[in-house]
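[Archive record]
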Amino acid sequence: MAINERDRYRLFEAAEQHLGSDAAETLMELLPPVGWADVAVKRDLDQMELLLRSDLDQTRIELKSEIHAVRLELKSDIQELRSELKSEIQQVSVGMKSEIGGFRAEMYHELSQVHQELGRVHQRIADQTRTLVLTMMTMQLATIGATAAIVARFA
């Protein structure tokens, strides 16, 4: 039998006539607002606790599984990035070695040209020095000859 609000009100009125207004209100407050079939008992709460624990355990298992999957994916991504980075560093290293080799070859070529130019400058200086020395010797000989001629003329 389902109890509705009209039935509850009639019970209140009957209790009020026999017990008085305060006692009738106290009685109505002690009764559940719905039928006794709708009131939870300890057994119902225990069952609810078991269901909640089961749900929590299942959620925990699923969460651990998802975390594990994310961890594996992150490890894979990190390994892939590490591999890509090593490859790029290797490429940069090869490029740098090639650039340095090219620069070194240019420097050797430039240095060789500087050495050649210094050799030509050295040769020109040597030629000019020889010419200067021969010219000075010729002038000295001419001076000695002129001095000997003057001395011979006056002697």
